[in-house]
């Protein structure tokens, strides 16, 4: 890495990183980290490396925002696709962060599109935001189809920023919180963890070793996709329109007033473009019961302090 004098005029990388972390946290991020760029470049396949999108990138910033509210976990799968996802909040924070770095440090920066690679088919992203977050140490791969989990915040949504500013890198987590102790107990008793047992598509398999750590993990993405497409409203609608033998009727379907609302939602960045059925996370003790897994647990001390102060006054 360049030393600070070679970085953007007068910018100290350590101070700059802390300033960026503080900014992202003010914007709603619970965790922020900087993955090692060389490691991403080595692991990501050609065409999906940071330098493939932004040739002069020097650092990647990964941030995670909290997942759904505690109440949302009560909703059925068909509603979770709309109410359970907070990724748009992560994307807004990352967008703001890119603007902030340019304004504060004068370093060219870009919000990393979480979108699919138009040349790569329907399930290949331009970049693996998951890889960025994992190497930044703000999430670890779980038995539930590699969904990243955090020991403190449980299930988060992630977003990334590229910048020409050089920032010191973080390390991946030393210990993976998945499987949780109660999952190890279940595995010892029935040979499966809760996510494996309750996945309706039965697309998760894995082995836990003697020390209670992940030994092997297998995720059948096609099975998961087949099941969750049920909740992917827009792709389902397009598939129906394209299959329509009478093309004029297919076009009519796309312009149906009831469906226009979906196009609006897509343009606004929501609307179940992609879904998961959430059952693997609904039964996951980390996703739902990590110490700061939801807003209620994160704000508990504030409410307790308010009650204590009120009691003192009384
Ligand atoms: S999203 Fe649903 S189908 Fe996919 S792995 Fe999780 S529980 Fe299984
Ligand atoms: S339920 Fe959660 S913590 Fe337990 S094994 Fe599955 S993903 Fe890991």
Strand content: 5-15%
- What is the helix/strand order? HEHHEHHEHEEEHHEEHHHHHHH
The biggest beta sheet, please?
Answer: 6 strands, antiparallel
Low-confidence stretches: 1-5, 268-272
Average pLDDT score: 88
The set of bound ligands, ions and cofactors reads: iron/sulfur cluster
Quick one: overall form? Answer: globular
Could you describe the 3D structure shown?
- By secondary structure, the chain is of the alpha+beta class.
- Among the domains are: 4-163, no CATH class; 233-267, no CATH class.
- It has helices at 13-26, 37-43, 50-53, 77-83, 87-105, 129-136, 181-190, 194-198, 221-228, 233-243, 247-255, 257-267, 279-282, 285-289, 295-313, and strands spanning 29-33, 59-66, 109-111, 140-141, 148-150, 154-163, 204-208, 214-219.
- The strands form two sheets. Strands 1, 2, 3, 4, 5 and 6 form a six-stranded antiparallel beta sheet that branches. A two-stranded antiparallel ribbon has the order 7-8.
- β4 and β5 (148-150) form a beta hairpin.
- The chain is globular, with a radius of gyration of 21 Å.
- 36% of the residues are buried.
- The structure holds iron/sulfur cluster (SF4) (2 copies).
- Residues 144-145, 199-201, 203-204, 224, 227-228, 276-277, 279-280 line the site of one iron/sulfur cluster.
């Amino acid at each position: 890495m360049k030393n600070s004098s070679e970085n953007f005029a007068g910018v100290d990388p350590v101070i700059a990183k802390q300033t960026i972390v503080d900014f992202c946290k003010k914007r709603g991020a619970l965790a922020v980290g900087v993955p090692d760029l060389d490691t991403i470049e080595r692991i990501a396949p050609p065409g999906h490396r940071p330098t493939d999108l932004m040739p002069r990138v020097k650092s990647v910033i990964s941030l995670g925002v909290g997942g759904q509210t505690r109440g949302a976990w009560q909703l059925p799968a068909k509603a979770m696709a709309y109410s359970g996802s907070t990724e748009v909040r992560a994307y807004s924070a990352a967008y703001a962060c890119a603007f902030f770095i340019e304004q504060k440090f004068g370093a060219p920066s870009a919000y990393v599109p979480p979108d699919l690679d138009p040349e790569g088919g329907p399930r290949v992203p331009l970049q693996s935001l998951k890889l960025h977050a994992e190497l930044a140490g703000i999430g670890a791969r779980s038995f539930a189809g590699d969904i990243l989990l955090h020991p403190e915040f449980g299930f988060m949504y992630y977003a990334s920023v590229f910048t020409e500013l050089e920032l010191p890198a973080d390390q991946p987590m030393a210990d993976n919180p998945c499987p949780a102790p109660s999952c190890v107990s279940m595995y010892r008793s029935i040979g499966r963890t809760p996510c494996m047992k309750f996945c309706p598509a039965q697309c998760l398999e894995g082995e836990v070793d003697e020390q209670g750590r992940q030994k092997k993990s297998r995720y059948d993405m096609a099975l998961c996709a087949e099941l969750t497409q049920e909740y992917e409203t827009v792709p389902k609608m397009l598939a129906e329109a394209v299959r329509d033998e009478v093309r004029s009727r297919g076009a009519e379907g796309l312009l149906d007033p009831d469906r226009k609302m979906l196009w609006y939602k897509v343009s606004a960045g929501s609307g179940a473009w992609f879904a998961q059925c959430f059952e693997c996370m609904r039964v996951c003790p980390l996703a739902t019961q990590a110490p700061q897994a939801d807003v209620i647990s994160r704000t508990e001390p504030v409410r307790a302090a308010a009650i204590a102060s009120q009691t003192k006054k009384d």
